[in-house]
UniProtKB/TrEMBL annotation:
One of its GO terms (cellular component) is cytosol. GO terms for molecular function: hydrolase activity. This is ADP-ribose pyrophosphatase. Residues 43-176 form the Nudix hydrolase domain. Keywords: Hydrolase. It comes from Pseudolactococcus insecticola. Its cofactor is Mg(2+). Pfam families: NUDIX.
């Protein structure tokens, strides 16, 4: 089958919400093969970066924070949205987030993956990096005014226990930990 056999052509698009982080659109699409029309609710996001930061003693750096959408506190790898103009250099954005959220910089950076968080309704793309040879930044950039974070360093076994307990509950962090385990602890 070709792309045309799957493509949904946009008949109309209505902006439902235009926010600081996301835009929500309502599309009516023509289904392929003359199968009629269908509605699509879509979330557009500028993208994000995340970092699997590994310390010299083989621990992962996590941040603990409250997530309003979940109404709970969870552990996550350092991450953040791409600011306006940062799409051209997501690695620089990742290094900014690492410094802001942890006070650390990395001498070695490797891109792990790019992935969509929920392609059924969103175009959010996360760039995931691995940062090693970490160094403390003497005067780090401040955290965002609306963020309250605690930094933790945990072993692989501790990270897996946090996944099992539900304290790590987001896909980017689980994916990063899985990558870490498969690449270095196999």
């Amino acid at each position: 089958m070709n792309f045309e056999d799957f493509e949904e052509k946009t008949i109309s698009r209505e902006t439902i919400f235009k926010g600081q982080i996301i835009d929500v659109k309502f599309d009516t699409v023509a289904l392929p093969g003359n199968r009629g029309a269908a509605p699509r609710e879509l979330v557009f996001h500028n993208g994000a970066v995340a970092v699997l930061a590994i310390t010299s003693d083989d621990k992962i750096v996590l941040v603990r924070q409250f997530r309003k959408a979940l109404e709970k506190v969870i552990y996550e790898i350092p991450a953040g949205k791409l600011e306006q103009g940062e799409n051209a250099d997501p690695q620089a954005a990742m290094l900014r987030e690492l410094e802001e959220e942890t006070g650390l910089a990395a001498k070695t950076v490797t891109k792990i993956a790019e992935f969509y968080t929920a392609p059924g309704f969103s175009n959010e793309l996360i760039y995931l990096y691995k940062a090693e040879n970490l160094v403390k930044v003497e005067n780090p950039r401040p955290q965002d005014d609306d963020e309250i974070l605690e930094r933790y360093e945990v072993s692989l076994a501790e990270a897996k226990a946090l996944i099992a307990s539900g304290e790590i509950a987001d896909a980017k962090t689980i994916l990063a930990i899985q990558h870490w385990e498969l690449s270095t602890h196999a």
